[in-house]
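Lab notebook, bench 4. Continuing the backlog of folding jobs that were queued last week. Each job is logged with the same field layout so the records can be merged later without manual cleanup. Today's entry covers Oxidoreductase, a 45-residue chain. Filled in by technician R.K.

JOB TYPE: sequence-to-structure
TARGET: Oxidoreductase
LENGTH: 45
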Amino acid sequence: MDRIPSVDLKDFISEDPKRKQKFINDIGKAYEDIGFVALKGHFFR
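JOB STATUS: finished
OUTPUT FIELD FOLLOWS
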């Protein structure tokens, strides 16, 4: 793997079911493949 997979939390909290499903699919694949992800779009500082 050449890069750390990243997911955007804004997709999960979106009202769009397709964006939510993509987030779920992407984070699941990342955890299966490498075991972690970079999370963007969060509200933590």
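OBSERVATION: The mean pLDDT is 92.
SIGNED: R.K.
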